[in-house]
């Protein structure tokens, strides 16, 4: 007769322990979330202006490129001075972290090691896309701000790389989306909602580490990123076709 109450008591204790340990924890700070979704929209806008706008939207494509450069600089800075889950050293996929994750022993709030590999690859591809765009030209209406600093053949080659890198980037974005769907359907883990709300429910009693003076750190990171982008794009280069016009105009009549 006494076994039933004992089992009931144990079950009740387990239920209470579950309620205590399962709580809402912060995963992503607001700057990381703003960076993520703004970058998504910027990449989409860059694609639209390049593929469908023609020469009419070339200037807007360049402006978007300048904005993406500022976003990348901001994320680089925030990866050192932001909140714990935003810092590279806390989620960089070291071999030991990868092994721990594959063996089911990894514990953390932010990117898991495989997700970190994906994030780093995507950021590297976006950086390569922006870097080649700085030297690219379309021979009609647009030339990257640094295109005049290299020869025409080099600019044309980097223009080709700029176009090819996008297809690789698009492929990685597709894999990123598939991974999100896999985690949602197979592992029952929603990765999208935390990137919107910043929080998720987790069985974790560990207190979230805090970082002081986030306000001025954010302002400083934005200011440095905006300045860096402005310095690069402040004097847009003339296209190679435009550079050739004055030489033709000097011909004897």
Annotate the secondary structure layout.
Elements: H1 3-21, E1 22-26, H2 30-51, H3 58-81, H4 88-91, H5 95-102, H6 113-133, H7 152-185, H8 192-197, E2 199-203, H9 214-233, H10 240-249
Antiparallel strand pairs: 1-2
Describe the protein in words.
- Helices cover 66% and strands 4% of the residues.
- With 253 residues, the chain is mainly α.
- It has a two-stranded antiparallel sheet.
Q: What is the structure about, briefly put?
A:
The chain has ten helices and two strands. With 253 residues, the protein is mainly α.
Low-confidence stretches: 9-20, 238-253
Average pLDDT score: 83
Distance between the termini: 116 Å
According to DSSP, the number of beta strands is: 2
Q: Kindly estimate the percentage of residues that lie in beta strands according to DSSP.
A: under 5%
Bulk shape: globular
Query: Can you count the helices?
Result: 10
Q: How much helical structure, as a percent, in the residues?
A: 55-70%
The ordered string of helix (H) and strand (E) elements is HEHHHHHHHEHH
Mind summarizing the main beta sheet? 2 strands, antiparallel
Structural class: mainly alpha
What radius of gyration results from the CA coordinates?
A: 25 Å
Order the strands across the largest sheet as they lie in space.
Answer: 1-2
């Amino acid at each position: 007769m006494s076994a039933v109450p004992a089992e009931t008591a144990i079950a009740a204790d387990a239920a209470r322990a579950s309620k205590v340990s399962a709580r809402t924890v912060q995963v992503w700070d607001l700057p990381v979330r703003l960076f993520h979704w703004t970058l998504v929209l910027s990449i989409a806008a860059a694609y639209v202006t390049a593929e469908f706008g023609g020469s009419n939207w070339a200037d807007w494509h360049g402006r978007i490129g300048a904005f993406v450069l500022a976003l990348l600089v901001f994320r680089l800075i925030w990866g050192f001075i932001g909140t714990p889950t935003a810092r590279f050293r806390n989620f960089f996929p070291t071999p030991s972290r990868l092994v721990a994750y594959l063996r089911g022993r990894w514990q953390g709030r932010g990117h898991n090691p495989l997700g970190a590999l994906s994030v780093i690859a995507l950021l590297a591809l976006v950086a390569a896309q922006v870097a080649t765009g700085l030297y690219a030209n379309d021979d009609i209406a647009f030339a990257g701000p640094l295109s005049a600093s290299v020869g025409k053949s080099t600019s044309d080659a980097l223009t080709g790389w700029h176009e090819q890198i996008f297809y690789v980037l698009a492929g990685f974005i597709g894999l990123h989306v598939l991974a999100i769907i896999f985690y949602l359907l197979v592992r029952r883990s929603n990765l999208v909602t935390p990137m919107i709300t910043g929080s998720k429910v987790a069985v974790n009693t560990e207190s979230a580490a805090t970082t002081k003076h986030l306000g001025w750190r954010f302002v400083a990171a934005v200011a440095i990123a905006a300045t860096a982008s402005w310095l690069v794009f402040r004097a847009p280069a003339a296209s190679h076709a435009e550079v050739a016009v004055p030489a033709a105009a000097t011909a004897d009549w």
